[in-house]
Amino acid sequence: MAADPSPSSETPVQATPASGGASAPSPGAAAAGRRRATAGRAAPERSRGERVTLGWDVARRLVAAGEGLAMAGALGLALVELHGARAHALAADEVVAGVRLGGQDVGGLSVEALREAAEALGRKALDRPLTLAAGPAEVQTSARALGADPVAEASVRGALAVGRSGDPWLDLRDRVAAARGEVDLPIGYRLVDGPALDELLALAPRVDRPSLPTRLDLERRKVLPASSGTALLAYDSLSAIAVGLAEGAERIDLVVQDKPPVEDPLAGMADALDVSVVLGSFDTPYAMTDTDRNHNLKVGSHAVDGHVLQPGELFSLNAVVGPRSAEAGYRYATGIEAGELVDTMGGGICQVSSTLFGAAFFAGLDVVRARPHSRPSSYVDMGLDSTVVYPDVDLKLRNPFDFPVVLHMTVSQGKVRAEVLGPRRPYQVAFERELVEVRPYQTLWRHDPQLRSGSEAVAQRGMRGFKVKRIRKLYQGGQVVRSEDWELSYPSTTEIVRRGTNPTGPLPDKPKAPPLRDPASALRIVQ
Predict the structure, then answer these.
(1) Contact 164, 181 (CB under 8 A)
(2) Helix/strand/coil for 14
(3) Cβ(501)–Cβ(384) below 8 Å
(4) How far apart are CA 191 and CA 148, in angstroms?
(5) What is the pTM of this model?
(6) Does the CA dihedral 288-292-298-301 come out positive or negative?
(7) CA–CA gap between residue 423 and residue 413 (Å, rounded)
(8) C-alpha closest to that of 97 among 176, 158, 165, 173
(9) What is the pLDDT of residue 84?
(10) CA 154/CA 119 separation, integer angstroms
């Protein structure tokens, strides 16, 4: 290596002219003389700053050119110039040219000017938009809102350290990168956990999702797959925020953890389920003023709703709905018992059974067991009803198809609705009913000590009994492919009349009842 080309060590070399009469020099000697003459000329005096600039400029040009080994000699000459320039640069208290801090050029600034710039940039950066992302949930915030304080000294130290590592090659690389505008340092921050933690805890409910099993969205006719839940780990996310602020990130991904799966009863059959088609449906009305009976309708329908019936599987309403008890959520309400209207636990469950029976009838499910009521019901046509009494009187159906079906029931706005859902509808179904016989009712008198002697009041209105024939015809392509029929009997309802025995008792009210009507001699409904 050449000696440090400082002013004290530079010695000009003078050229010595040839004496007269000497022989002419050879070509080689002449060339050598020219080289000595050139080397002997005194180089122009440069300032230390000029030598620094020249040295780094030569180095940058050589690195950018990348001429390989062919430039090795020229690089050696540049390093001679850089040897002194580097010593000066390491000792300087100015930022290397081209260095940026938070997007702003701070190259050439003194320490004090750099500190002022870092403080101003830090205050400005506190309010820049910042996005916290936790899966699909995002929140817009700022470093100030998260409790961050800019640390000017950290930014000053980082800017001054560029190109001053002590390693010549690393310093050369960093200075060239700075000159190209490739060195942009983030603003340093100090994070106070409190505000950031509050922001995370406020975001957590938007991220928190329970793990869900396979489920049926029967209103939209879809099977929804199982999904894993998520939870935001607030305390772990504090570290992510600290790192993101230190790096000057505009978006920080928080720490979100998947929750373990839950028990999934439908997992094994999810691929085979298809609820896109209504095979059969049926509606029955109810009075919205009878709150206890309507409550029972909802409890019973909820138990049936979503029940999956596999090919060949038998359905029992009593087994699915269970005992009608207060523990199961039922209340006392009006029902039919032994041909009389009485308050009974779970009153109204027969309407659930009858509505489901109607849907199953029109869907083409096999009717294994179904008993009509002991008296015609006001909410359903004779022949389409099915009474149940736990545990002895039951509604039983079987799925005859080679695919599973799903039962869907709703109770809303004065209507109980049942549907049988599956991938396709094999049949068009017709219900036919023929009136075979009409039977008169009997009258029963009961003494009432509260009513005035000789007065009468109807406690239960009598209704005639009927014998009907129910027929189901299944069509494919407009042709009957199967026909079934049942003979059903509806006993007459005894009329009960209260007869007064109290000489001074009140007279009863006598509301006018509408006349009794017999059912139509024939009825046909097609779905």
Answers:
(1) no
(2) coil
(3) no
(4) 4
(5) 0.67
(6) negative
(7) 28
(8) 176
(9) 53
(10) 11
Residue 499 near residue 451, CB atoms below 8 Å: yes
Q: Which two tokens stand for residue 118?
A: 């870092």
Residues in a beta bridge with 502:
452
In terms of Cβ atoms closer than 10 Å to its own Cβ (0-12, 13-18, 19+), residue 435 is middle
How many whole angstroms separate alpha carbon 249 and alpha carbon 45? Answer: 48
Distance CA 511, CA 496 (A): 15
| CA-based max dimension of the chain | 178
Q: Cα(88)–Cα(97) distance, rounded to whole angstroms?
A: 14
Partners of residue 489 on adjacent β-strands: 467
pLDDT at 92: 61
Q: Under 8 Å CB-to-CB from 285, ≥6 apart: which residues?
A: 379, 414, 415, 416
CATH number of 101-162+180-258: 3.10.20
Q: What distance in Å separates the CA atoms of residue 503 and residue 512, rounded to the nearest whole number?
A: 25
pLDDT at 88: 54
Query: For 472, what's the count of Cα atoms within 13 Å in the CB-facing half-sphere?
Result: 21
Query: Which tokens go with 516?
Result: 């009794």
Query: 428-439 and 465-476 as β-strands: parallel, antiparallel, unpaired?
Result: antiparallel
Element (H, E) at 40: helix 27-40
Sheet of strand 396-398: strand arrangement: 314-316, 396-398, 366-369
Cα dist. 69→75, 77, 256 in Å? 10, 14, 52
* Strand-strand pairing, 495-502 and 443-452: parallel
Cα angle value 132/135/138 (rounded, 5°): 35
Number of Cβ within 10 Å of residue 323's Cβ equals: 12
Q: What residue segments make up the domains of the chain, in order of their start?
A: 101-162+180-258, 274-426, 428-509+519-527
**Both tokens assigned to 173:** 């690389």
Residue 392 identity (one-letter amino acid): D
3-state secondary structure 260-323: CCCCCCCHHHHHHCCCCEEEEEEEEECCCCCHHHHHHHHHHHHHHCCEEECCCCEEEHHHHHCC
Q: What top-level class would CATH report for the domain 428-509+519-527?
A: mainly beta
The residue with tokens 């003979």 is 487
Report yes or no: 299 and 327 within 8 Å, Cβ to Cβ: no
Give per-10-residue mean pLDDT for the chain (527 aa).
Answer: 40 34 38 38 46 52 49 51 54 85 91 90 87 92 89 87 91 92 87 89 93 95 94 94 86 95 92 96 96 97 98 98 96 80 91 98 98 90 96 97 98 98 97 96 94 93 94 97 97 92 93 86 96
Joined together, the tokens standing for residue 27 give: 């070509």
pLDDT value for 85: 52
Q: Which two tokens stand for residue 216?
A: 């049926």
Token look-up 């029972």 returns: 296
